[in-house]
Predict the 3D structure of the following.
Amino acid sequence: MKLFQDSSWKWWQLKLIAWGGVLVGLAIGIQFSQQLADWLGLLWASALIIWLYVVAVYFKK
């Protein structure tokens, strides 16, 4: 199938995985902020989002 050979399909797959990771990261961050301190949860969520963004930019090249 041409769809699976297309490089943009691979990029969309990566974007879907990245957005799923962001949502999971936010959920974990909210759990952390409820159980521990607010700044720890925010730090965890933002660090995960930044890491996923770097990975996405790296794979796009």
Q: What stands out?
A: Residues 16 and 55 are 13 Å apart (CA to CA). The chain has three helices and no strands. Residues 9-60 form one domain.
